[in-house]
Amino acid sequence: MGTIPIVGQGALNRIATHLVVANYTNLNVTPSYLGKNQIAVHSRDPASKLLPTATGGVSSPEPYQFWDIDMDLLKSQAFSWNWLTQMRTNCNLGPITAYSDAPSTWQPMQFKSAQLVTVDPEAFDGDHQIVRVRLEAVYEINSILWG
User: What's the pLDDT tens digit per position in 54-66?
Assistant: First the structure.
C-alpha cells in the first residue's frame, strides 16, 4: 500500500470577511463592525429533487435557492443602528455580495432580491455585545437551466 500524501490545509483570513449592499453603501459590512461569529450563510432549500416515478426517479434541478445571511454586528458601534434605521425605512435591499474568510479559494457569493428580515439587539444587560441581523436572498444555481 502506498503512502497517503499530506495536503496543505490552507489558511483562513477572518479580516477578509465582508458584505456589500450595492444599493445602500451605508450598510456595507467590514470586519471592524463584526463580532467573533462574523457572517454566516445558509441554504434553506435543496439544489435538486428526485421525484418518484413508476420505475425509478426523475431529477428536477432548482433554478435558485433561498439563503439566510446572518451577521453579528457590534452593538457598541453606531453602525449597527444603521440596520435598524434601514428596517424602519425599507427592508428591500436588492443585490448583495458576501465575501468569505477564504478569499483565495472561495469566490464571492452574489445574491439577488435581498430582504432585511430581523434586527435583534438581544439583551440590554451589559453582557451582550451583538446585534444579530438576518437577511434572506435568492442565490441562482444550476446555471445550465438558464440557457
Answer: 999 999 999 999 9
